Amino acid sequence: MTDPGAAGLYIHVPFCASKCPYCDFFSIAAAGMTDAWCAAVCRELDLYRGSFPRFKTVYFGGGTPSLLSERQLGLLMERVRTSVSVVGDAECTIEVNPDDMSLEKARVLRSLGFNRLSIGVQSFDDGVLGFLQRRHTARQSLEAVEHAAAAGFENVSLDLMYGLPRQDWQADLAQALRLQPAHLSCYQLTIKPGTVFFRMQQENSLSPESEDTLEQLFLFADSFLGGAGYQHYEVSNYARDAACEARHNSRYWRHLPYLGLGPAAHSFDGHKRWWNVDSVQGYCRLLEDGAFPLADEETLSVEQLRLERLMLGLRTSRGAALADVGSDERTLAQLEREGLITVRSGRVVPTIRGMLVADRLPLLLEGHENAPA
Amino acid sequence: MLNIRNFSIIAHIDHGKSTLADRLIQHAGLISARDFHDQLLDSMDIEQERGITIKSQTVALPYTGKDGQEYVLNLIDTPGHVDFSYEVSRALAACEGVLLLVDAAQGVEAQTLANLYAAMEHDLEIIPVINKIDLPAADIERVKEEIEIELGLDSNGALLCSAKAGTGIEQVFEAVVDRLPPPQGDPSAPLAALIFDANYDQFRGTVVSCRVFNGTVRAGDTIRFMSNGACYRVEEVGVFRIKLEKRSVLSAGEVGYIIAGIKTVSDTRVGDTITLDSNPAAAPLSGFKEPKSMVFSSVYPIAADDYPGLVEALEKYKLNDAALNYQKDSSAALGQGFRCGFLGLLHLEIVQERMEREYDQAIIMTAPSVQYKFTLRNGTELTIENPQYYPDPTVIDTAFEPYVRISIIIPERYMGAVMKLCTERRGSNSRFTYPSPGRIEVNFDMPLAEIIYDFYDRLKTITQGYGSFDYEYLEHRPGDLVKVDMMVNHEKVDALSFISHRDNARPRALQYCERLKEEIPRQMFKIIIQGAIGGSVIARSTINPFRKDVTAKCYGGDITRKRKLLEKQKKGKDRMKMVGDVQIPQKAFVAILKSEND
Q1: What is the largest CA-CA distance in chain B?
Q2: A351 near B CB under 8 A
Q3: Would you give the DSSP letter of residue B285?
Q4: Cα torsion at A59, A60, A63, A67 (round to 10°)?
């Protein structure tokens, strides 16, 4: 069952019809380059054939993967299956925008071998969608879910955002639950430098919710979705049951190897991490010359590996292995008393309050910061 | 010996001392045009950056006189700022004469006079030199008059030059040869050499700068420091030619260096006399006055385990800056450290910068304080320079604080703003003089505590840099003083306690509270910052705890960035000081000392 040699495969599709005002992911609008990009990804995959021969998960992320044509997606999936091997029960996910999800598109995706969809719903309120400058409507999201089911997708994940101005978070969650998705991702709106929202914030035309409000929204989702049986297994991720957890994404949190193809994609083999240049042209040119399209790489020390396992584990309900936690009994006991963690069967597991401050937990556990007295 | 001259150039700050030194060095052919850069003798980075001289430097200039004789002219460069007058006095002890430099446009200034007095104390021959004669604003006749009247020197003998343009330099050389006396002394007498400076070289140990008054010293001799009897075998002697230049012997009248494998830094004391172990001098040469510390602050390592490193760095530093005084100190908040005495605020800043740059010490300095005196109800007297030792207010009969007479010279148009600043800072007993048309000298009696905080910064701001500022100690006068404690989550941060006039206590405490609020990062719990006199809180601010601190997304491309941030945060914590449960970053301590306008 376990296949230690198999990794996760991520393919970054850096194209979007338009740039969303909150997104700082690498993407460009130049759809004219998709064929060149496609060829380059195939070349890159070949370069890694020896070191990454087998995959347990495949994930097309972006950008907007659903912008790619049937021919392009078909070519890539074909290459993945012939050039390397994909294990029989592999999870194959593609991120889609609701407005791209006609019934026909859903059927095509299914026939190409995808068995999981991640639909970028964001909200079921057209006002909020307008604010986010999304191209789709709430109606289209509902239809997308219907089409997915009709095409035979049993494993569907919906992306939602919270902390948005004039958003009814409860209504959005309730609507999502009515669709009974296998998986839900709930992302707090994060305003990042270089985005339109960041500039609006600088100009005071956008003010983010207070930390207190965000805390309440986070806790509300936890109890509301928890009440419906969903498991809050990662800071921003909920699964209908353990079998529905995102297997590809869980590889990141479990520190398992993954190969990332495409511009700006990151890869990790258990010791080293490297990442590609973030220019589509540069990426394509390097691969045409037969070169690795690397931007940079790092070899992780034993201590860095430990720190990453710790920081990633503490974002999840699995927690971190006690062996990776550098704290003494007293610190552990204090944090447990504070209700931030529980220690059980050799693991340090964050409580819901612990997840709320997951970025500080490693510092608290390492004794670099003090817990409340 | 007849062909040696030992001399200094003394001047008010910015009257062109370093430029003249540069020109003399160039003229003597010690350095090629290719290697030349301005402020040659100011070798420290800080000196170059700030355009000031902090340390005395020495250089031996070869010169062929008009009489056809070969001379060696030892130039001992000196700092100009009031804070470094101690450096000046050490340099002068090694000289027979000085060039007293006066700016042809600025005329005689406060420090010109102070330096002149210092030179007279050492019985030195004085040659007035009027510099910058090429400036459009140069007024040679007026400056000559000032030299006659304010300095009491014969202005007929004043040399005219422009160090910048390079005019009149030959005449300066000739005057040094003709008018300054050669050193006296007996090369066959027992060795007596005065240490006027020292440097620590990590490969060769201490490099001692000295002036030989009697006798000779050469490699192989065993020398003895007269103050403590420590003996060392001389490895090398030589002279300063920009770089160290080895010689076979240093003889009476000469200025040079001695390297003797001196690894025990504290054995070398500036002002001490070196003699020969086999044939010692009967008595040491008269040393220098102990410098008087005016401003006090405590120095702590950021990380407690750096303490041994700080001890070593201070020892080496002291070797090179005899004006710094220090003794052990400890603070509940900051651990083991040192209480340091400085000549002034600039001196404090320079020490802080040099400790960080040259000695690689990450340090925290506490708010500068002055020396307070108290008479207690039981009749005893008490002197403190550390707020930690402030006596119980109920036993104090009278508190005294140091007053200084300040002198500010400004263009007349800034008069109103300067007056306002001085009265705000409790200045009294004002006096005005007009040293020259359009310029005014303002004198006030002012508590020293008022100027050590941010006075000079404010003055520079309101006079757009035109104000020159100087002060001298007057006396201790009674004052209504209080001690203010700063508390973080009810835990006293003793390093931030300060003594203040009652009227200033609240505004300053409020400012501290606000600064700390900006500088202390949010933590998992609420942090309350308070300033209090005794039990009563006079200022307060709070820092709210984290409610939510977690990034929404963490996928393949986020991990490296997140780990690096975590590593940085972990490292950042090493530059934090724990006070109770609260972490206070080093920069919070520094920020508190900055003036409002920064």
Answers
A1: 86
A2: no
A3: P
A4: -150
Tokens standing for residue B538: 């006079």
Domain A6-253: which CATH number of 3.40.50.970, 3.40.980.10, 3.80.30.20, 3.60.150.10 = 3.80.30.20
> Residue A99 to residues A106, A139, A142, A189, A207: CA-CA distances in angstroms?
12, 10, 10, 21, 29
Spatial distance between the Cα atoms of B247 and B216, rounded to a whole number of angstroms: 12
Q: What is the pLDDT of residues B131-182, one digit of tens each?
A: 999 988 899 999 999 898 888 888 888 999 998 888 999 999 999 999 999 9
CATH code for the domain defined by B372-479: 3.30.70.240
- The interaxial angle of helices A70-83 and A34-47, nearest 10 deg, is 10
Quick one: which of A91, A79, A43, A9 has its CA closest to A257? A9
**Interface probe, candidates B491, B528, B547, B550, chain A, greatest A C-beta count within 10 A:** B550
List pLDDT tens digits, range A333-365.
989 998 999 999 999 999 999 999 999 999 889
Instruction: Show which of residues 172-201 on chain A sit within 8 Å of chain B, judged by CB atoms.
Output: 187-188, 190
* pLDDT for A2 beyond 50: no
Structure tokens, A362: 């490693």
Which tens digit of pLDDT belongs to each residue from B75-106? 987 765 556 666 677 788 889 999 999 999 88
List chain B domain ranges.
Answer: 4-179, 192-276, 295-365, 372-479, 482-595
A204: alpha, beta or left? (left if phi > 0; alpha if psi -120 to 50): left
User: Using H for helix, E for strand and C for coil, what is the string for A344-364?
Assistant: ECCEEEECHHHHHCCCCHHHH
DSSP state letters, B153-194: --GGG-EE-BTTTTBTHHHHHHHHHHHSPPP---TTSPPEEE
In this structure, are strands A320-321 and A347-350 parallel, antiparallel, or unpaired?
antiparallel
Q: How confident is the model at residue A190 (pLDDT cuts 50, 70, 90)?
A: very high
B192-276 and B372-479 in the same fold? no
How many degrees, rounded to 5, is the angle at CA A142 between CA A139 and CA A143?
A: 85
pLDDT in tens, A241-253: 999 999 999 999 9
Residue B116's H or E segment, with its range, is: helix B110-121
CA dist B598 and B458 (Å) reads 10
Confirm or reject contact between A365 and chain B (CB < 8 A).
no
CB B20 within 8 A of CB B163: yes
Smallest Cβ distance to B552: which of A188, A298, A368?
A: A188
CA distance linking residue A15 with residue A22, whole number of Å: 16
How close B570 comes to chain A (CA, Å)?
Answer: 6
Domain B4-179 has CATH 3.40.50.300: yes
Q: Are B127 and B97 in contact (CB under 8 A)?
A: yes
Say which CATH topology domain B295-365 has: Alpha-Beta Plaits (3.30.70)
pLDDT per residue over A294-319, tens digit each? 999 999 999 999 999 999 999 999 99
Topology of domain B482-595, CATH: Alpha-Beta Plaits (3.30.70)
Per-residue 3-state assignment (H helix, E strand, C coil) for B394-460? HHEEEEEEEEEEEEEEEEHHHHHHHHHHHHHCCCEEEEEEEEECCEEEEEEEEEHHHHHCCHHHHHH
- Chain B residues whose beta carbon lies within 8 Å of the beta carbon of residue A235: 550-552, 554
Q: Is the ipTM of this complex over 0.90?
A: yes
> Average per-residue pLDDT in chain B?
85
Domain ranges in chain A? Answer: 6-253, 316-365
CATH number of B192-276: 2.40.30.10
Cis (ω within 30 of 0) for the bond into B238?
no
Mark B351-385 as b/e (b = at least 16 C-beta within 10 Å).
bbbbbeebbebebbbbbbbbbbbbeeeeeeeeebb
